[in-house]
Amino acid sequence: MERKIRGTWMDDPAHFRRRSRRDFMYVGLLGGLGLTLPEFLRMEAMAAGTDLAAKGSAPAKSVIHIYLPGGAAQQETFDPKPHAPVEYRGDLKSIETAIPGVRFNQYLPHTAKIANKITVCRGMSHSEAAHERGTSNMFTGYRPSPALEYPCMGSVVSHELGAQKGLPPYVAIPNMPQSAPKNGYLSSAYGPFSVGSDPASNSFKVRDLNLPGGIDDSRFTRRRNLLDAVDAHFTGSKPADNVGAMSSFYEHAYNLVGSVQAREAFNINAEPDAVRDRYGRNQAGQRMLLARRLIEAGTRFVSLTYGGWDMHGRIRDGIARTVPPLDQAFATLILDLEERGLLDSTLVMISSEFGRTPKINKDAGRDHWPKVFSVVLAGGGIRKGCIFGESDAIAAEPDHDSLSVEDLAMTVYNRMGIDASKELMAPGDRPIEIVKDGKVVDELIV
Amino acid sequence: MVRTAKSLFVAIALGSLFAGTAVAEEKLAIYPADVNLTSANDFQSFVLQRTLPDGVTLDVTSNAKLSIADPKIAKLEGNIVRPLADGTTELVATEGGATLKIPVYVKGAQAAQPISFKLDVVPALTKAGCNSGSCHGASRGKDGFRLSLFGFDPDGDYDRITRELPGRRLNLAVCEDSLLLQKAAGQVDHTGGDLMDPDGKLYQSVLKWVEMGAPKDSDKVAKPVSIEIMPSRVVLGGPNATQQLVVRAHYSDGTDRDITDLAILMSNNDNSVSVDETGKATSKQRGEAFVLARFDAFAVTNQVLVVPTQPFQPKKESGGNYIDDLITTKLNKLRIEPSEICTDEEFLRRVSIDIVGQMPTPEEYAKFLADKRPDKRKHFVDELLSRKEFAEIWVMNFAEVLQIRSSNQVSPKATLLFFNWLGERIAAGDPLDETFYDLLTSTGGTFRSPGANFYQNERDKLKIAENVAQVFLGMRIQCAQCHNHPFDRWTMDDYYSFASFFSQIGRKPGEDRQENIIFNSGGGEVKHPVGGRVMKPKFLGGETANTAGRDRREVVAEWITSKENPYFATNLANRIWAHYFGRGIVEPVDDVRISNPPSNPELLDALAGKLIEYDYDLKKFVRDICTSNAYQRSSKPNDSNRLDESNFARGNVRRVKAEILLDCISQVTDTEDDFSRLPKGARAITIPDGRTSTYFLTTFGRAKRETVCACESLTDPTLSQALHMLNGDTTNSKIQQGKLVEKMLKEGKKPEEIIESLYVRCLSRKPTEEERKRLGTALAEAKDDAQKRVVLEDIFWALLNSKEFVFNH
Fold it and tell me: Does some domain include residue A53?
């Protein structure tokens, strides 16, 4: 499906992959007569089982991805430029952090204190300046292509590592950002499960997770039995791939609904008030807290969004409003994970579709700028207290150690024990690398 | 030189061995039908193919006795003819008692044709993969060296090889040391590896050209004008059968060349047929494949079938129409037995959901089953076609691809007017070609001339051209924006010439701020990005248009909707067909290209012909589809059609589309929905705006109408769907709101009768004995009437959750 923005995909390496029969097939075909869906699924399954051995020893067992939709300004967060002229540095101050000589924006005091536990990549760089393309790029590790939709990292992790303890392997809090890619060419089975409402809200409830009013467990069991009785005739006489696929989702739903432990993972009210307060009773705090509950219970990849960062005007106010809750929640999340002994097995990442222009614009804001911006990584086999890469004096371009989307994705997958140079099978018998032409960044890992 | 006959064959009458099969006589054929050699280094390979009485073909080239009638004129090397002296002779082949002769014409046998950059070097680089997208064909090249993708710009390639970094790529003194050759042969470090064997033809072509001093082609060098792949029909029996293919190119100077070893060959279905680089096709499991040959800007395919070798005896069947004749012919070729005709109950439910998006009511169910007329299905189809919902479904389907959706550019009012305009045209039964002609030529305010919103939703001229091609012609031409389409015939010239039709669309705000006015501005051109030529409007695959003094959109709309346009009627016919079968004859329906051929071209042509014959009357056309035997097949597979997806040998089990599924749930629960900006009780299929949605519709994959792609409407299952059906308000609340069980109990119906009635409502059938027993057991556990009601409501819930309900089958 093509997106509205046009003009750069000609440069997309994936668009021009090596010439072979798989290009001939194009997207979305299951190979006419020869290749049936079960066969395709079997091939997928085979592809999935190839490097399970490597996973046991992987440092990261799960990922919490904190996504700042809209494009967070690097200057007003993790890469302030206090020595740049005012039209570049903006009028916010910077503060010292736990790493000597490293400064963050004034609204990040909590995070500054734990700077020695995290890694900031200040040389993140790509070339997609439109929201949907940048988002797609950061979520998949691929530049968007009109010829193929790539799966996002969470879907790949879900595909590679599978579900455990009845929980969906990949959860979005509260929803995937607009126009973010989902399962891409992978089966919808690997798509994110969206909790659908905001955990900061008093009436927070995961949509359709709990039995409706008046239905208790025994009545639900009866319903299931009745449904089995009604389904038997049809599924027995008309075996079809799509019917089987739907049945497997029903099985998954039964596991989720039927497991108290799994349902409880979504119950943020079970957290003590002190913990909820510590994270902050706001969107950032409660979303990160719910993410922690989920990974603790067995979810592999949580993708949460926070704030609106598309600050084309009055960026000073936007930052003052948006950053403090992020600061408190993020610092708490890192400390909480550490206290629970989960930090080393949980990779936390803060990213955004791009950064913002070096110079403050006429509306006192900053515009889209993918050339250089910052990504934060922590835990899960990532180095601690490291600043990787630098932007130049006005945060316009990487000065050294720039980080590509491919390398970032490759590194995250590597920490999860996934060899991202491996090919997955896209419909039409097209093997596609999880990440193309990326390398694991040694400086980022321990 | 006559080239009309592609092959020469003799038929050997053997009588009818297998009654009913399409081919009843054995024949032997030789491909190509003539050999034309025009220089000392010219050559031509050929193959002998025997067609057995049951249709299976054999490559018998190596079994044949071969000779040249006049050995002074030409000689044979295996299956290759080479020239010796000018003149005319014959190639004589004897096999299985039959003898075939084809003419061999030799001219210019004394002089070798000099190596040409365009005719030899670029094809060699293409065949070796040097200019593919992942290598030097990438837009920025690779490792500092760039070639045009698949050689679409040979002049540029010549400059880059010979003039860029002078002295680096070619060494005219020690030719073998040219970096171009050393890299290609892997003699020095090369990311792409070892691609050309120094003893091979590709390397030798390039080397000879360097030895000649790497000359630039004169302007007189012939251009390829067409290519052909032979034999045109290959039916391999069982696995591991082979057939050598021959590919020949024809040039503007009237010569031809054997390009079997230069063309890129690939199969679209390696599970059935694989093809190697020498052009040998090998069969695997039963099925069909298209082998594509690509050379220069040309791509052609031939169909290769793989059939089981066991004798096949097709069954005779009564009824049906032209659709069935054509499907049966294809199935017989593949030796596939179609499934039985479905039951009345199955038909009733299937056709109701497909034509009107509703379940049959209990009354319709009783009436239909009681109807004893032999042609009652036809009558019922007619009844459904006369209902307004028939038109509403098609308005929804077309609204998806016409992107009827409010946005910053299109106000909700304009969106509603656009939707209603389309609705009125379709409900009135206006011929579709006229409706789309009017849409494409819409001029004026987007309120008063709502079709004009088509040009307001998308305002980029290139994108409009792409959308028009995709929606009305079923083809995706966007590849050709940046390079010649590698798997289709479209070149960049075609793309920009077609886009030129949409370069003069004027827009200005109307009196009402929400209205926009679309008009013919009379100015504006499209330039080719390479060289900046102004591109004259030219029809895709057709001629340059005369647009002088006219709105260019009018000219292109006339061409698109004309009866001679080879794509318009087939695209519409295919889209309509796909709605009723869950799959197009070309699939996806908006991806027509040489390398994605229709599964049954004769059927598609016949349907397109009917659509034109019926003057694009949707109703009449759908009647043919829904009364065909093919539409009425049971979805229960048999052993021979289990693996087949594309030949309509059985009913296709399809998840019901989001809007229709919600409407059906509301219908059977006797409840109403309340969509934003629509009166309460409006059905989901009538929602005008792609932006209006509900949790249910979004979760079940309703098209957002953000693009013209038919892929927007999704029926893939998800966890959220399952949870919503199990625990969500669509099922649970609606059962409560509709109070159906309560009402039936009040009417004094027995629980068994209520179960039966719910079954009929939801599944259009009565419960089986087994089901009655199992549901009865659950019911028996209920102690009082209140509990009985609860169990019955749970049965209702189970029916709504059943796969049999959410799928059309």
Answer: yes
How distant is the Cα of A217 from the closest Cα of chain B, in angstroms?
A: 12
B286/A230 Cβ within 8 A: no
Q: What sign does the dihedral B526-B531-B536-B540 (CA atoms) show?
A: negative
- A244 touches B: beta carbon within 8 Å: no
Q: State mean pLDDT over A72-88.
A: 96
Residues of chain B with pLDDT under 50: 1-24
Express each pLDDT in B478-510 by its tens digit: 878 877 776 677 888 999 999 999 999 999 999
Q: Does A42 touch chain B (CB under 8 A)?
A: no
Residue A344 is assigned to a structural domain of this protein? yes
Q: Which residues of chain A have a CB within 8 Å of the CB of B691?
A: none
Question: Cβ distance B399 to B692 under 8 Å?
Answer: no
- Interval A122-131: pLDDT, tens: 999 998 888 8
Lowest mean pLDDT among A16-25, A336-345, B484-493: A16-25
Distances (CA, A) of A129 to A79, A368, B379: 19, 6, 58
CB B443 within 8 A of CB B519: yes
B304 touches chain A (CB under 8 A): no
List the single residue in A2, A26, A219 with the smallest CB-CB distance to B707.
A2
Residues 215-274 of B with CB under 8 A from A: 264, 266-272
Q: Considering only CA atoms, which of B337, B334, B332 is closest in space to residue B272?
A: B334
Q: Give the residue from B341, B701, B336, B659 showing the smallest Cα distance to A242.
A: B701
Average pLDDT over residues A255-280: 93
Q: Do A24 and B637 touch (CB under 8 A)?
A: no
Q: How far is the alpha carbon of A265 from chain B, nearest alpha carbon, in Å?
A: 17
A250 chain-B contacts, CB cut-off 8 A: 722, 726, 801
Structure-derived torsion over alpha carbons of residues B237, B238, B239, B241, reported in degrees to the nearest 10: -20
For chain B, which domains are there? Answer: 1-111 (2.60.40.1380), 117-211 (no CATH), 226-313 (2.60.40.1080), 459-562 (no CATH), 739-809 (no CATH)
A100 lies in some domain: yes
What residue of B is the nearest CA neighbor of A257?
B723
User: How does residue A35 score in pLDDT terms, banded at 50, 70 and 90?
Assistant: very low
Cβ pair A369, A129 in contact under 8 A:
yes
The domain of A84 spans 9-150+310-444
In a domain? residue A64: yes
CB contact under 8 A, A232 and B719: no
Task: Tell the residue number behind the tokens 């298209």, with chain if given.
Answer: B290
B472's enclosing H/E stretch is helix B461-472
Closest among A387, A378, A291, A332 to A110, alpha carbons compared = A332
> pTM here?
0.81
Mutation target among A231, A238, A259, A436 for the B interface, most CBs of B within 10 A: A238
* B-proximal residues of A, 140-159, CB under 8 Å: 146
A31 to chain B: closest CA residue: B269
Which chain B residue shows the shortest CA-CA distance from A34?
B271
* Mean pLDDT, range A327-334, rounded to an integer: 98
**Closest-CA distance of chain B to residue A232, Å:** 9
B409 touches chain A (CB under 8 A): no
Considering only the beta carbons, identify the residue of A191, A222, A238 that sits closest to B809: A238
pLDDT in tens, A170-228: 999 999 987 788 888 888 778 899 998 899 999 998 989 989 988 999 999 999 999 99
What's the whole-number average pLDDT of chain A? 86
Count of structural domains within chain A: 1
Q: Cα torsion at B614, B615, B619, B623 (round to 10°)?
A: 20
Q: What is the mean pLDDT of chain B?
A: 92
Strands A118-124 and A386-388: parallel
